[in-house]
Amino acid sequence: VMTEPVAEMCERLVKAVNVIMDPETNQTLRLEALKFCEEFKETSSLCIPCGLKLAAKTQPAVIRHFGLQILEHVIKYRWNNMQVNEKVQLKDCAMQLLSTGTSSVLQEESHIKDVLSRITVEMIKREWPQNWPDMLKEMEALTSQGEAQTELVMLILLRLAEDVITFQTLPTQRRRDIQQTLTQNMDSIFTFLMAILHINVEDFRKTVRHVCFDTNKARVYCRVSVATLNTLAGYIDWVSLAHITNNNCQLLEILCLLLNEPELQLEAAECLLIAISRKMDWLSLRLVERRYIFLKRLCQVLCAMGSQLCFLAVSTDIEIPPNLCKYTEALMAFTTHTSHFLKMSTLQTWGALFRHDVLSKDPVILEMAKKYMKTCMTNLIKTGYPSRNDHPSCMYSSVDFDSDEDFHSFSVVFRAQQSDMLRLACRMAPLEAFQIAAEWLQFQITSPVDVGDSTTSSGGLCSMLSPSVTQWDAETIFMECMVGQIFKHLETEKLPIDASTELLQALLKYETKDPLILSCVLTNTSALFPFVIHRPHLLSLVLDKLFRAVTFETSQNKMVPRTRAVKNVRRHACSSIIRICRDYPDFLVPCFDIFYEHTKKLLASDPTITYMEKCSLMEALVLISNQFKDFEKQKAFLDELLAPVVADWTSEDLRVLATPAMYLSFIGADQVLTEKTREAEAITCNRARLSFCLFVLSGVIKRAKWPSDMEEAKAGGFVVGCTSGGEPIYRNPCTSIFLAMLPNLFVLIRTQISLFLPENMARLSETFSAAHEIMDQEKNVVLGISQPLLDIYDSPVYKSNLERMQGFFATIYDICFHALGNACQSLLQEFYSIEGLTQEISTSVFGTFDHVPDHRLRPMIHILFIHSSLVQYCPPEYHESLLCPLLGPLFAYILQVGIVQRLTWAENNVTQEMLEEHLVILLTREVIEFLSKWLHFSTIICLVSSIEFTSIYMSLLTLSFTAISWKDTTICNRSSSLLCWTLLRPATAGNLLPEAVTWFFTSVLKALQVHGQHEVCNNTLNQLAMLIYEALRPRYAELRTVMMQVPNINMDSLDQYDHKLLDPKAQKAGEKKRKDQFKRLLAGTIGKALCEQFKKEVHIKNLPTLFKRPKDEKDIMNETLGLAALFAPTTEAL
Fold it and tell me: Which residues form the Importin N-terminal domain (predicted)?
């Protein structure tokens, strides 16, 4: 009989739940009702009777679910405080709910079934097997009561396996007890599951095949079969393989047969995939179309079989399966499927087959490699955007991808993987690959241009989605992959020289005014250029094609800005010329004079050539001149080539670079303009002059080299002496040019950095007041925001006045440091021996960099110290005089910036701009990466022993130990593993202040509190803490005081650890054991992830240890071991 308090409380709870679930309820009432329900679950003694009352089958589903949640809460959080009779009563009630408390299998709500299974599993986790030995028998008995109970038992067994094995949500001993008992009973569990599956599948088939079959009855059997297959999937991944292969692989046979049942094939494929892919990762996607999901699973099954095949066929002694041909044809069917996802799923398997030492030589695989290459002619074509409907693959893409941006990101990876597999196939059949590429290119050349419909073209020109462009683009990738492999894996005499020559000639004759297609033509030309080496008469034709592309235009109207596609073609042509000159300079030396005259004529006669294009052509000339191998001849050429640039850069009118106000006026940053107002041509020319001079200086310094061969360098006059270590000292033919331009370079750097001072920021006009702010493109890179999917290639590139000024400032700022960095690499000794270099860099680069914004400071550090490392190429004799005076202020500043920003995040982390946080993190990462490369033990010893550089050393120590607790795991991991102990170890030999020792150790513990939940950081930080403690604890008792403050530390364990550490007579434990002991001591410092901080703890007590059979004791003293016979002198004994 229901007591009155229980009935009254149930009535209140029902009202509260209805208020919570009613969408019309206001927020205040909903919160009050929610608070009432939560307080009831936490504090009320009526939870069990109320929960059972509310869970009755007569209640609405939402009330039943809440009642069952109450019971689950009691089991999870109050079980340890309940009396035994209360536990038994609750367990019996839960079993009664399983037996009679649900509706039929088709009518019952899935969330009711789910919470019922959770309740049962929570009790099992706390009481089985010790206090509930008959649990499995009770579950088996439940299945005899009907299909609804059978499905619930399947859900219980599945959730039990997930909690114990997959998610491991139990304490170690409880998990071990349950897993061990499951393993011991796995024979009976699998027999039980197979019997349930067999009965329901057979009943399902009989019902479906009946002339007047009952649809609902069939659905019932199908539902139970699906639940059983899902449960099997939860066990197949971890049980012994013997259970899977029992009875001549009966389970696998049944699963294969179920692939013919449309209603069960998906779940069967899931089980089959897991069984075949044991210990292999696979991607599970939640998709809508059942048939498509089935195809994915079946494809993964095939791929898993391929992995097993590659693993087994390890030698020629292994017999290749006779049905390998059928297998590869099945795999190829998925490779040629319309779905891009299915195509990509097969690539890894093809790669394994093509790379395999044994299988790759089999005729079947060789034939499939040829088929794969032909398939690439279709698969490389970029089609299937989910927003479009112009290809059959669009339908599948709309299922696989949320947007065109997602598809674009996928297609980039997909195409890269296809290219890798294509290279492997080309390696196996290089001549066939050439034939396919040649026929494809000939087809493209002879085919008319198809611009597509109005959505893929504009003004009669192609867009990126035009059919012709997608075809040309795919062919270009095939050609590049093929040529690279054919030269690697074919002897020279077998190369198809004549055929390639005809192909190249046809390509050179091909003319088009479409920039996107022309870009593909240029790529094909560059790819086929290696064949020109064997037919030198084609060189002039190739260069003519490229030079004409440098000046390519689609419009005669000079006032209309060029489209992106046109700019890309011109840039592409310049890059191709540089690439040819870089890779084949010897081949171009005989025609250097013609090349030079052609370039001079082009530079003088075509005013439309941009400064970037001019610079690229000059770099190409410098690359060829490196083959003169004559210092004086190359120097004379460089002096002649760069004379106009040097004269312009050192002219009187560029003295304006020294004064910020005059410089801003020179580039027009102090002028007020509107978007309808064009800048004066003189202002535009001034900016172009500066850009051109700097790009030429940086490019020429980068390209000018001495001969790599020592003897050739000596003979050419490039070697001027030797270092004290016997290394040659080289001279660069462009040194004099660089030295002539260096003073103004330092002046410009100094002025550029001073522009960030408040007084100079005020000089910017209203139009350009935001000129120093980060550009949108840079901002997207910092924040990881993807760029627009498809650039509008057919529209002119219009930029606002502000965007042009922002781009100019950013470009000038970066190129100045590129010029210095390139000089470090190319001039070496000549650069570092420049008189007053330290002072110049200090005053210009680091003079006022505390005002430089982070988005400008980061590229400076990256370019100058990492990419073209000022430190990496610095001779040892200049370390003290050059590096230390420069790096000290930099490290101190980074430390200051990081601490300030970290405090800002702590105080105002809600409103703080994400951009600023990312910039500081990226900046610190750059510094940490630089330090990890540069710092060596000998360098640190030098810093520690030198009083002059003590401040630098202290800045490094402070920076590294402070950075480990910043909210970035990358910084923490790199700093703790590569820097902290490397820096601190030399100082441990001396006398440190107790406060300093305490600070170092506490910093590591703080980092554990912030990052300890991450396994990688946890390991490195624990290692660092142990190194510090063991090195300094014998001399500094303060470290024990710090350790005593660690939450929940075991003082006995700490005493034992200290005893073994301090007592020289104590037996020392091994390193691994010491690590584990110290890690347990610091366990209390580990912080929780944000998602775990407010989660209520679930405590599950350990039960008595399961009975273990004692090992048989043998008296080995009385047992005959045969040792006497082994060493007996007689042969009979052996």
Answer: 33-100
Q: Which string of DSSP letters, residue by residue, matches 155-202?
A: HHHHHHHIIIIIS--S-HHHHHHHHHHHHHTHHHHHHHHHHHHHHHHH
| Residues 785, 779: Cα–Cα separation, whole Å | 8
Instruction: Name the residue among 1020, 1061, 1053, 1021 with its Cα closest to residue 1037.
Output: 1061
DSSP state of 659: S
C-beta of residue 1063 within 8 angstroms of C-beta of residue 1003 = no
DSSP assignment letter at 1130: S
Q: Can you give the pTM of this predicted structure?
A: 0.69
Neighbouring-strand partners of residue 461: 458
Rounded CA-CA distance 1028/1024 in Å is: 6
Q: Rounded to an integer, what distance in angstroms lies between the CA atom of residue 189 and that of residue 243?
A: 10
Q: What is the pLDDT of residue 523?
A: 95
Encoded tokens for 1128: 């007996």
CB hemisphere CA count around 679 (13 angstroms) = 22
Burial class (CB in 10 A: 0-12, 13-18, 19+), 811: middle
Q: Which residues contact 944 (CB under 8 A, 6 or more apart)?
A: 950, 953, 986, 987, 990
DSSP assignment string, 579-605: HHHHH-HHHHGGGHHHHHHHHHHHHHH
Compute the distance between CA of residue 1016 and CA of residue 970 in angstroms, rounded to an integer: 10
Residue 250 near residue 176, CB atoms below 8 Å = no
How far is Cα 2 from Cα 985, in angstroms, rounded to an integer?
Answer: 73
Q: Is the pLDDT of residue 1123 over 50?
A: no
Q: How many CA atoms does the CB half-sphere of 152 hold within 13 Å?
A: 37
User: Mean pLDDT, the chain, as a whole number?
Assistant: 85
d(CA 1109, CA 1112): 9
Identify the bridge partners of residue 729 per DSSP, sorted by sequence position: 721
Structure tokens at 898: 């990081």
Tell me how long the chain is.
1134
Q: Are 733 and 634 in contact (CB under 8 A)?
A: yes
Q: Rounded distance, CA 293 to CA 336, Å? A: 17
Q: State the residue for tokens 């408390």.
A: 101
pLDDT in the model for residue 459: 65
Helix axes 186-209, 135-143, angle to 10 degrees: 10
**What whole-number distance in Å separates Cα of residue 639 and Cα of residue 646?**
9
Q: Residues with Cβ < 8 Å from 1032, sequence gap 6 or more? A: 988, 992, 997, 1001, 1039
User: In terms of C-beta density within 10 A (0-12 exposed, 13-18 middle, 19 or more buried), how is residue 238 classed?
Assistant: middle
